[in-house]
Automatic annotation (TrEMBL):
Species, as recorded: Acetobacteroides hydrogenigenes
Protein name: Methyltransferase family protein
Presence of the UniProt keyword Transferase in the record: yes
One GO MF term: methyltransferase activity
Keyword annotations of the record: Methyltransferase, Transferase
Keyword Hydrolase among UniProt keywords: no
GO biological process, one term: methylation
Coiled coil: none
């Protein structure tokens, strides 16, 4: 992670992004997305209830992930790790609103961490089933226990590597929305995207987190956008969304959020 890179790239995004409140967007699909999803997201609740219960049951310290961009055998305080790896409320609320408005039946998340983004995907969206995959057993166990204690029943936490998870999927299993938030390297992101394409429903949304986390992540996002199966790409600063629906006109957006 390079903090200076993140600051410069985010500033560049702020300068270049447009379509505030949908201005200048001709595509009815994207206009509706901006007006009814992006602009409504801030009204959604945050994940404080989830974080409170998690901190109540989790140990005070926890191992750092050995699957990330910089694998580690060290431990960290659970509170700090929660803060460091979890999606922010601003973007978590956007995930929540997307699921609420588009009602994907099957959602796949690659990288549960401690379950915060899974909670945003699942909360108040009982008709969507979230499958979240996490290689660190300690993280998966804590997330599972927190969901159980809060009575959230539409999340299945799968403690497995992504490789094993994809190998064991039945060929007919398809996902309507996929959130990719695994190791933040170029190779892992491209590989996770390509494997996601295979299990994506024809009109699926594929969301990539932390596209400005590093030079490699931004390069991965720029390459993903060029994939021939991608119809529309939309850059919202921290996250990028790929829309696969073949009826959409090919277009790239950089939208102010
Ligand atoms: C950034 S964290 C996820 C944070 C979470 N999505 C959130 O916002 O609350 C990435 C997670 O992906 C897991 N991970 C990375 N590569 C993996 C792999 N190949 N198989 C399984 N888990 C992996 C890491 O252990 C880590 O917990």
């Amino acid at each position: 992670m390079n903090k200076a890179f993140q600051i410069v790239e985010y500033a560049r995004y702020l300068l270049k992004s447009e379509h505030w409140r949908g201005h200048g967007v001709h595509s009815p699909f994207m206009y509706k997305f901006i007006r009814e999803t992006l602009m409504k997201a801030s009204k959604k609740p945050n994940a404080s209830q989830y974080a409170k219960e998690l901190k109540r049951i989790a140990p005070r310290t926890i191992a750092k992930s050995n699957f990330g961009a910089s694998p580690s055998n060290e431990t960290d305080s659970t509170t700090r790790l929660l803060q460091k790896i979890s999606i922010s409320p601003k973007y978590g609320k956007l995930l929540n609103t997307i699921v609420c408005n588009y009602g994907p039946k099957e959602v796949l998340e690659l990288g549960s961490g401690l379950g915060v983004s899974s909670y945003y995907l699942a909360n108040s969206n009982p008709n969507s089933h979230i499958v979240t995959v996490e290689g660190m057993k300690a993280y998966a166990d804590i997330a599972q226990a927190t969901f159980k204690n809060l009575g959230v029943t539409n999340v299945s936490v799968n403690n497995s590597t992504f490789n094993v998870f994809f190998e064991n999927l039945t060929p007919t299993q398809k996902f309507d929305l996929i959130f990719i938030d695994g190791a933040h390297t170029y190779e892992a992101t491209i590989s996770n995207f390509e494997r996601s394409l295979i299990v994506a429903a024809p009109e699926a949304f594929i969301i990539l987190d932390d596209i400005r986390w590093s030079e490699d992540m931004l390069r991965a996002w720029n390459d993903v956008k060029q994939h021939p199966k991608v119809r529309v790409s939309a850059d919202f600063g921290r996250i990028g969304i790929i829309f696969l629906n073949p009826v959409l006109q090919k277009q790239e957006y950089q939208v102010r959020y």
